[in-house]
């Protein structure tokens, strides 16, 4: 991933859950919300995939689900109930 302004490399890490590029200092993937640890790999099994436990985004136009921090994994909006 490169800075759109200066072109400097911001990191070459890839999220194991969705395949998006992730900044090395990030705690979570900016695209899917999966936990991200720069020093170790997060296995897909660590990310909850139990469909019955998901909370859908409270924005009526979004198809995302809410992560453990209460943020939609697709649009990034906080869950409002």
Describe this structure as you would to a colleague.
By secondary structure, this protein is low in regular secondary structure. It folds into 2 domains: 1-47, no CATH class; 49-81, no CATH class. The protein has no helices and 2 strands. It has strands at 13-14, 21-22. Strands 1-2 form a two-stranded antiparallel ribbon. A hairpin with a 6-residue loop joins strand 1 (13-14) and strand 2. It is elongated. The model has no long low-confidence stretch (mean pLDDT 76).
Summary of the model, kept short:
This protein has no helices and 2 strands.
Task: Summarize the helices and strands and which ones pair or pack.
Layout: E1 13-14, E2 21-22
């Amino acid at each position: 991933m490169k800075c759109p302004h200066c072109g400097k490399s911001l990191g070459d890490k890839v999220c194991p859950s969705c395949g998006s590029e992730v900044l090395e200092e990030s705690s979570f993937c900016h695209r899917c919300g999966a936990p991200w640890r720069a020093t170790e790999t997060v296995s897909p099994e660590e990310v909850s995939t139990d469909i019955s436990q998901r909370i859908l985004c409270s924005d009526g136009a979004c198809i995302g689900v809410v992560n453990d921090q209460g943020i939609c994994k697709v649009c990034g909006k906080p869950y409002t109930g």
